[in-house]
Amino acid sequence: MDTILILDFGGQTTQLIGRRIRDLGVYSEIAPGDASLDDVLHEGVKGIILSGSPHSSWNDESPKPDPAVLTCGLPVLGICYGFHQLTLAAGGEVKALPHREYGRSAVRHQGSNRLFDGIPESFLSWMSHGDSVSSLGLDFEQIAYSENGVPAAAAHLHKPFWGVQYHPEASHCEYGDKLLENFACEISKARKEWSLEQYIEEEAKSLRQKADGKDVLLLISGGVDSTVAAALLLRSLPHEKIWLMYVDTGMMRKGESEEVAKSLKALGAKNLLLIDARDRFLIPLAGIEDPEKKRQIIGDAFIRVQREEIAKHLPQGYMLAQGTLYTDLIESGQGVGNQAHVIKSHHNVGTPLVQAKRAAGELIEPLEKLYKDEVRRLGKILAVSPDIVHRHPFPGPGLGIRILSDVTKEKLDILREADAIYISELKKRGLYHQIWQAFAVLLPVRSVGVTGDAREYGNVLGLRAVVSRDGMTADVFDFPTKDLLEISAKITNNVKHIGRVVYDVSSKPPATIEWE
């Protein structure tokens, strides 16, 4: 199959490049950026993309591509750090900028290079870099520049090499998909032979090989990720070999456990375990404020509860399955290769017990190559309920990481009620499906307020709502002021301990979507 090979230098959007290529219908593969080309190149590869990176290319210890990448004769596109590597290999210079360049930036190209075919001469790009090309390499010419005077793109005069400083894979970059299509299909001549239907068939074969007749346990939250993972497992393996375990941690949303039980029964699974483990989570969390420690405690508790319950219900030699997405892996520093930086740990990725399962080959993650919007599309193909498919993301640690202090039952009850009002109002007002993710956060501060004739110090609640395509970048939702004011008033009027509501207007980057 025609393939675009992506060499990963640890960039947080590397898999997003692969996703964009697959969205075009072209198959993509990702390999470590410093891998020997002999180990990763095959007959189907038609072009190579060099990814971004958290490293600085001028640092001698930073990862570098195999020199054979530049002599193999295939078209090469360098993105950000990849552009810098092409520049240095050709004798150019890369330097740190006085100020990092993040977010939207106007770009203008010269209008004559085929990489920009079909793209207006001026458009808004998405920048995320602290270094920049200060001197182009030998035989490279600048073909685009940014509003800040930074070289935005360059091309080799004689070889099929291109570099772009911005990130065309980011959803907020205008005409990014068109640039990637120009490279993959027009320049590299890769044919469009890839689809999610094909992914299902190939993943089904892979799941049967991995499971090898063993029982498979899926820890399921009832959200879109784990539910689609369950549907894919049920599509691929004998139903009597699949066990679905839902664990009520005490940090679920209002009415969620009842809703989850109903939806899981509708999946038709033969083995369903509904576990009330609230005390087993809340007791070890007592007094813990550090977000990473909370995540680790919750992750360890999940595995501990799972082991205790498995001993009661399952035979030995089972496989553990999870609805892990690639965003979980790369934010936890578990991307391809060893160059990724940790943004935040995920309970289903970074705990020692999960890592042990992974190392032992006893972990199945059928969605690990996919992003959220791909999972939603996959769910539709697998006939998962539309209510679940379009449900906003919910973190595995639940409301425990939306309380920005120690977790108590009292705080959980307050947040649970406020969050329920918020989401209910979004649905009533027709706003829910305009938003990629919305939730409430209980802040670790109190503020003075007036209730009737009395002064009270109430909790402060933060509201978050973002629009995104994949969760890797996100813009704040442009909330209609009337709706925001009315929702705020409804929360403060109906949740006794909330005295003030604020709205988070941060984008990603520089912020993450969740607060912890």
Task: Describe the secondary structure blueprint for this structure.
Blueprint: E1 3-8, H1 14-23, E2 27-32, H2 37-40, E3 45-50, E4 76-79, H3 81-89, E5 93-109, E6 122-135, E7 140-146, E8 151-156, E9 161-164, H4 176-187, H5 196-211, E10 216-219, H6 224-236, E11 242-248, H7 256-266, E12 271-276, H8 278-285, H9 291-313, E13 319-321, H10 326-331, H11 352-359, E14 363-364, H12 372-381, H13 386-389, H14 409-428, E15 437-451, E16 454-467, E17 475-476, H15 481-494, E18 498-503
Parallel strand pairs: 1-2, 1-3, 3-4, 4-9, 10-11, 10-13, 11-12, 13-14, 16-18
Antiparallel strand pairs: 5-6, 5-7, 7-8, 8-9, 15-16, 16-17
Helix pairs in contact: 5-6, 6-12, 8-9, 14-15
Would you mind describing this structure in some detail?
The protein contains 15 helices and 18 strands. With 516 residues, the protein is α/β, with parallel strands linked by helices. It folds into three domains: 185 residues, 3-Layer(aba) Sandwich (Rossmann fold); 194 residues, HUPs (Rossmann fold, 3-Layer(aba) Sandwich); 96 residues, GMP Synthetase, Chain A, domain 3 (2-Layer Sandwich), CATH 3.30.300. Strands 2-1-3-4-9-8-7-5-6 form a nine-stranded mixed β-sheet, sandwiched between helices. Strands 12-11-10-13-14 form a five-stranded parallel β-sheet, with helices on both faces. Strands 15, 16, 17 and 18 form a four-stranded mixed β-sheet that branches. α7 links the parallel β11 and β12. α5 packs across α6, α6 packs across α12 and α8 runs antiparallel to α9. About 2% of the residues have low confidence.
